[in-house]
From TrEMBL:
It comes from Hirundo rustica rustica. It comes from the Eukaryota. The lineage of its organism: Eukaryota, Metazoa, Chordata, Craniata, Vertebrata. One of its GO terms (cellular component) is endoplasmic reticulum membrane. The chain crosses the membrane at residues 70-89. It holds the Pfam family DER1. Keywords: Endoplasmic reticulum, Membrane, Transmembrane, Transmembrane helix. This is Derlin. InterPro entries: DER1, Rhomboid-like_sf. It is found in: Endoplasmic reticulum membrane. Residues 145-170 are annotated as: Disordered. Its main location: endoplasmic reticulum. Belongs to the derlin family. It is a multi-pass membrane protein. The keyword Endoplasmic reticulum applies.
Length: 170
């Protein structure tokens, strides 16, 4: 009984707040149980953004494939359709002297995700292979609406039948 009440209260908290609070509690517990050290939680932007290009390019690739007719303008020099955006960004990265290995990795992962999520399920005999973990659904999905909830009372205040009048001039 107490578990159900806690669960109902927990699910009424907005999804972002719920996720943040859950992450804080789990992180604190993991440090106290010495499963991880505080040093492992250290935020180092250089380490994160150095290996981030792949994730960003992956998101750009998926977006560009889902929006193939959007026209893009790159610094006012190039005008192209959205599916070429990851390749233009990779070329720009190459012009800046950066390694394109991370870009190619992001494009490859984005292509695999796009294929498994958007192409394969629509093929004959295809199906969805990628499923959202139930833990994430429990954290981020909004609770279902109560079908018995009625925001309007049965009787109207004051006893007047508002909206049930006669037409003027009739």
């Amino acid at each position: 009984m107490a578990y159900q009440t806690f669960r109902q209260e927990y699910l009424q908290v907005p999804p972002v707040t719920r996720a943040y609070t859950t992450a804080c509690v789990l992180t604190t517990a993991a440090v106290q149980l010495e499963l991880i050290t505080p040093f492992q939680l250290y935020f180092n932007p250089e380490l994160i953004f150095k290996h981030f290009q792949a994730f960003t390019i992956m998101l750009v690739y998926v977006w560009s494939r889902r929006n193939p007719y959007v026209r893009m303008n790159f610094f006012g020099l190039l005008i192209f359709q959205a599916p070429f955006l990851p390749w233009v960004l990779m070329g720009f990265s190459l012009l800046l002297g950066n390694s394109i290995i991370v870009d190619l990795l992001g494009i490859a992962v984005g292509h695999i995700y796009f294929f498994l999520e958007d192409v394969f399920p629509n093929q004959p005999g295809g199906g969805r292979l990628l499923r959202t973990p139930s833990v994430l659904k429990a954290i981020f999905d909004t609770p279902e609406d109560d079908p018995n909830y009625n925001p309007l009372p049965e009787e109207r205040p004051g006893g007047f039948a508002w909206g049930e009048g006669q037409r003027l001039g009739g």
